[in-house]
Amino acid sequence: MLYSQEINIAAGCSEYGKHYFIAYEDKDEALVIKNIIKYYHNFIILKTNYISLFDSKNSFCFYYNYINLDLLFPMPFFISNNYAEQNKSNFKNNKGKNYIYFYSIPNVKANNDSYIAQFEKTMLESISESCVFDGEIIENNMLFLKFAEPTFIATNKKQYNRFFFAPGGIGDFFMNFSIIKDYLNTGHYRNTYIMNYSRSKNVNFDYMVKLCYGFRAKILDCYHYKYLFYYWLGQHEYYSAQQRKLYLPSPSKSNGEHIAFLYRKHLIGEKNLYYYQYNDILKERILKSVSEEEKAYINSIIKYGSKNLGLQYFTGELNKNNEWFFFGDRKWDESNIIGLMRKCKESNINLIALNSETYIPSLQSCCIKKLSIAGYALLISKLDMVVSVDSSAGHIAAFYSIPSITLWGKGSPLSLNYNGSLYMGFRALRKNYSLMAKNKQIASIDYNTVFYLIKEFIANKFLFKDEIITYQDSANGYNMMYV
Hints:
Blueprint: H1 4-16, E1 18-24, H2 29-36, E2 44-48, E3 59-63, H3 69-72, H4 81-87, E4 97-104, H5 113-127, E5 132-139, E6 142-148, E7 161-165, H6 170-184, E8 191-196, H7 203-213, E9 218-221, H8 227-235, H9 237-246, E10 257-258, H10 259-268, H11 279-289, H12 292-301, E11 307-312, E12 314-318, E13 324-331, H13 334-346, E14 349-353, H14 373-381, E15 385-389, H15 392-399, E16 404-408, E17 424-425, E18 432-436, H16 447-458, H17 471-475, E19 480-482
Parallel strand pairs: 1-3, 2-6, 7-8, 8-9, 10-17, 11-14, 11-15, 15-16, 16-18, 18-19
Antiparallel strand pairs: 1-4, 2-4, 5-6, 12-13
């Protein structure tokens, strides 16, 4: 049963929506796509003769060379009905034409996800009787789908591209670097694309792909498509099946698995690969990427001759309204943070707050200078230990074989799912100790308990094994404590 809002969107699209077709020549395809995406992303590409949809009173035809895109789209995702009416052409003599096809409501900036998904669904339904999927076109690192009448589809087309998913967090890239590096060493394709299917352009994702893999892998942005992205996955059952398996946690603790183990199996099968096999390659790239200015700053805050402790006490960001948004419950409270800072100072431990900005005004002066991701990783590589909520800091520490203590609230080493019903681990893969709040409130993890573990480590009374921590290790309580 549809919710009333979904019914209203579907009804509104049906009543007020229009079909728009921009005809162009084969030789101009790349240029046409590059220019149109400045105004509108959610279109498909058609190669067709005259089809029945052209007969609809709600269908508009334009010729690319005879329209002004600035006037057709006075603002992004907004189509001027007056300009469309005054400049529409007819569909006569359109044998084997190429079209940019999009569906929208004129004079309305209907660019939210629900409207876009309905527009895309309407397009597919409208051409399904005449055209079939003919492949993907990639321009400006963006995915676009092409449909054609069967007579225009070439047989025995070669596949020059391959695509794969990568979990998109900064820590995920450090955890999975060797897995992806090994995968890129196999196969012979003209292009290999890592798919960004998050809800928007992801600057950190782009940065990490370039840092880790350079020219070996390209970024494929899919965020502009809503309904069409999942349609495309359905046309590539191999990728669709892999995605389902990768992100389908077990409902049973006894059958749970760590995300890195699942991802390795997803990408390279049962191959026996050490998770940090190619670390030295990325370490070298990081060193080359960090500016001399950042290196000098990092060296200035490290105290040689003392123990250096990194603390990442939250993970989140400021939204458009200048309000803090936190990822889950991953933030420690002010009193515990200040208490740990005081204890470290009294014991001559150099505590470095790894956040460059904070939601706690009184701690703003303790923040580090904003660093590049490579600079951030280089800083962590110089620490003796890291304390953090579930975040990139712990995974980067594991990458450099540096001990870490992770604070868990609603999540746990056994489940990132906050109601605890789906079992998939995201714990740092080595040298990690996890503290979990019995009441699921991360603030109840007292700084004295954290400091006790830090002191035990410094005194060599508490050893972190350098072995990979499996999901079963976590299930058996390895290096874990409920407090």
